[in-house]
Amino acid sequence: MGENDDLKDNLSPESGYDQREVVGFFWEVVKMVVLSLAIIVPIRYFVIQPFFVKGASMEESFHNGDYVLIDEISYRFNEPQRGDVVVFRFPQDPSQYFIKRIIGLPGEKIQIKSNEVLIFNEEHPEGFILDESAYLENDQRTTGDFSMNVDEKEYFVLGDNRMHSSDSRIWGAVNRQLISGRVFLRAWPITDIGTFSGVQYLTPQLAD
Description:
- By secondary structure, this protein is an alpha+beta fold.
- It has helices at residues 2-47, 168-171, and strands at 48-52, 67-71, 85-90, 93-104, 109-113, 116-120, 128-129, 146-149, 154-158, 174-175, 179-188, 194-195, 205-206.
- It has one domain (53-206): Umud Fragment, subunit A (Ribbon).
- A hairpin with a 5-residue loop joins strand 11 and strand 12.
- It is elongated, with a radius of gyration of 27 Å.
């Protein structure tokens, strides 16, 4: 009886020490997970958000299956600019997200004719032809005879694949509140990883 008691006494401290080690380890893991979530979740939902591109409307700039990240915070301090590629909620079904390029700004008049996009605004009341050579393929054609006045707080958007894009030519301009953010990085495929910045348009060519 005495030997068993001695054996029990000898083992008790070591068993208690192991238990504290295990509890301490799991507590550290819990703290690490909570801290990670506290950092990642706000970034994921309020700063950067990922999307997969579906469809061919933005080719050759973006392809079906591309994985892109959008900057959600910049537009809280600055307004969207012409040439920005943005992700927004589809005006006719806000549960869907679309990706397009901003072409017309609030208060402007947009006209499409003879495969050209013309912009009329306060700076250019006579209108100018938008030079889109920086992102449109040579064989792209902006077809149709179209004119629209863009309301305040709305943006006229087009797909870079003009002949295969459902955009503002069909369902109208996009309200500012529907724009989630600006695409700033393609993260997949690996061979095409790269950042995207604003477009530097050439000197406007006046319309006839």
